[in-house]
Design brief:
The structure is a homodimer.
Chain A: H1 8-11, H2 19-35, E1 44-45, H3 47-54, H4 58-70, E2 74-77, E3 81-84, H5 92-110, H6 116-131, H7 135-150, H8 156-176, H9 185-198, H10 202-229
Antiparallel strand pairs in A: 1-3, 2-3
The first copy, chain A, binds a DNA duplex (30 and 30 nucleotides) through helix 2 and helix 4.
GO molecular function (chains A, B): DNA binding; DNA-binding transcription factor activity
InterPro entries (chains A, B): GntR_C, TF_FadR/GntR_C, Tscrpt_reg_HTH_GntR, WH-like_DNA-bd_sf, WH_DNA-bd_sf
Keywords (chains A, B): DNA-binding, Transcription, Transcription regulation
Chain lengths: ~230, ~230
DNA sequence: AACATGAAAATTGGATCCAATAACCCTAGT
DNA sequence: ACTAGGGTTATTGGATCCAATTTTCATGTT
């Protein structure tokens, strides 16, 4: 497959930033570029390249890379460089099992407190998903839809954890949506889910969500098996 | 209250480490010192102090501090320094609610797979807890006991998450055990728990664990309320 | 005596320089 | 022609130096 080695300046801006803000800015730019897929897994990130791009020394770049490594978005190897971390792989099954646990609980807490605005917002995301074809946007809308349903959960720590996992999934979908059949399929699940939430049918909604996530897990699983099998 | 500003060299070793290992060593030393409480929350950590202590420049120290900040063990403020992060506080309720969710699931997965050795190990920890008076050791044994019961859970990601939370609790107990009555209390819970696990009574064990954690949450909660109230 | 103002010291962050190491290429030998 | 070896180059990590900012302390004024 022909991987075109696109320049970093095309995927990140190239504005000159004041030095004392450099670390934060660079970190944020890189993070979002990695999360939304503009920097695919495996991409090598050079310190000097980023430094000249933002018009600073390598120092703030180093720090930013270390921060991202700590969040396991990058893997830094001595004298070799930083590469964008691989996507969900071996632990896909664990990840989705965990998500079922976390997200059903969030749903349980949230549904009774959801108001008409929340439901309307969720339905709006579904509507946008209907006509959306860009993968990055589909991933984003999917995340926003789910978070809209969980948004009223009381446990903030739980919500933060869920958001991390949804970001992971978004990143994964960004790359593999096309190659794995999935597409319209989930829309029915989404509609049923928001309907149940709207009617405050907690148990039914939980059951739907569980089914929805297990289905996704199975799809990804068989997709990954098929890939490594070939 | 009289806080004696003990020297860093007393809580960390003072061996000279080869420069190319400095970052990792320093990070590890600091992490364990923070986790097991030798560095109490609020302690200010100076870059130069660590640097001279280990006989290296400030560079590897900086990086180590950043790593620890990313794990939220430190809070670094511009031109002011790094202070050891505060313990469980506002989010204690969220934390324990989350732990109930995570740990009951781990227990559900683990119990059917526990063998005689696992049970024996758990009982050994209980026995050591009987005669132990040092808080740090009590916290450690408590963590090891719980992990022993969860150890056979299939979901590795779940286990990693639980271990993080248990480390947090260990750190908290290290400081507040004495001032909050708690002590022998949990031993009965522990014994009942391991008995249920030994008899493969999953639902009963889960119920016991839930009660155990909720009790701990209530204790900590009232302790914190009492503290801030005064 | 108390407070405000200012200067000095302490401390962190960035820039530049040097060392160590790994990747790469080119050449020579089979 | 292909492989092995060595040397050059690229790249990261640490050390040192400088800039920016905050804190602290002292001094003067009210």
């Amino acid at each position: 497959m022909a991987e075109k080695p696109k320049l970093l300046s095309t995927v990140l801006g190239s504005e000159q930033v004041p030095p004392h803000l450099a670390r934060g800015v660079i970190e944020e730019r890189l993070r979002s570029a990695i999360l939304d897929g503009r920097l695919p897994p495996g991409t090598a990130v050079r310190q000097q390249e980023l430094a000249t791009l933002f018009g600073v020394s390598r120092m703030p770049v180093r720090e930013a890379l270390r921060q991202l490594e700590a969040q396991s978005l990058l893997q830094v190897v001595m004298h070799k460089g930083a590469v964008v971390a691989p996507l969900i792989g071996e632990d896909a099954v664990d990840t989705y099992a965990l998500r079922v646990l976390l997200e059903t609980e969030a749903l349980r807490q949230s549904i009774p407190l959801l108001d008409a605005d929340d439901i309307a917002l969720a339905r709006a995301y579904i509507r946008q998903l209907e006509s959306e074809t860009r993968h990055a946007e589909i991933g984003r809308l999917n995340r926003l839809f789910h978070m809209a349903l969980y948004s009223k959960a009381q446990n903030q720590k739980l919500l933060r954890m869920i958001e991390i996992e949804l970001n992971e999934e978004e990143r994964f979908l960004r790359f593999h949506l096309s190659s794995m059949g999935l597409g319209k399929l989930t829309q029915d699940d989404h509609i049923a889910l928001v309907d149940a939430a709207s009617d405050k049918l907690v148990d039914e909604a939980i059951e739907l969500l569980e089914e929805h996530l297990n289905h996704a897990a199975r799809t990804i699983r068989s997709y990954l098996d098929r890939q490594s099998g070939n």
